[in-house]
Structures are given as C-alpha cells and as structure tokens.
Amino acid sequence: MIEFVNRNLEKTRPDYFYRVSEHVTTFGKDEGKNEGLSHEQDFKGKDLLKCKAEAEKYYWERLEGLEQGSYFSPFAAPQDFEFGKNAAFSITLSLIEFYTDDNYIMHQLIGEDWKTTAESREIEAEVLKAKGLL
User: Between residues 86 and 58, which one has the greater pLDDT?
Assistant: First the structure.
C-alpha cells in the first residue's frame, strides 16, 4: 500500500486495525500489594473483516476467562466490590485509526458506555463502507 506523506513526513491516511485491551487490578489493596496488569492484543492485516472477526472471538474468549477467573483476589461486580477482598477488570474491543505510534484514535466498540460504542460503531461502518467491505 502506498502511503501519502506531507512535507513534515507525517502520515495523512490512517491504517485501521482492531485491538483488545485488558486491565486487571487489585488497586494495590491485596495482601501482596500487587500492581495492576495491562495487555493489548492487535489484529492487523489486509482483510479488515477477518481481523474484526478474530478480534471479536478473542474478546469474548478473554471476557469469559476473566469472568471465571481471579487476579490475586476474586473478581467482583462493581456493586459487590470491596477493596482488599476483590480484584477488578476491564476489557475493550476497539477499532484503531492509526497514523503514528504517538498519533492514533481508539474507537471503542465493546466494553464502554452505550454512547461511546454507538459513535464508534458509526465510525467503523463509515470506514468499512469506504473500503468497500459493507
């Protein structure tokens, strides 16, 4: 793919891919005062629909594992959470609009509030239509 650059050598057309972001923590309140853990898994390739399908599959598998798991303490729903007794997690699936390592936009599709995900789904649809995939 030919990339267009301006005179400052900045990317002017983004690449798109999907990312699943996971965060688990006890907020340092567990017995061992453990730090939180974050992991990001990117799904890149020429076939954006295949990347989306792989990212969604990975998201649901990881979510199920987190819901059944623990991180130094058992996970609890926000209304049942107690510092020192429970751990917390968040997991999101995003469409990444990538220009450079320092310049990208995360359009969160799953794992955020309904307004954020609705706006992100509209952006995703526009991107997929522009690429002739919808």
Answer: 58
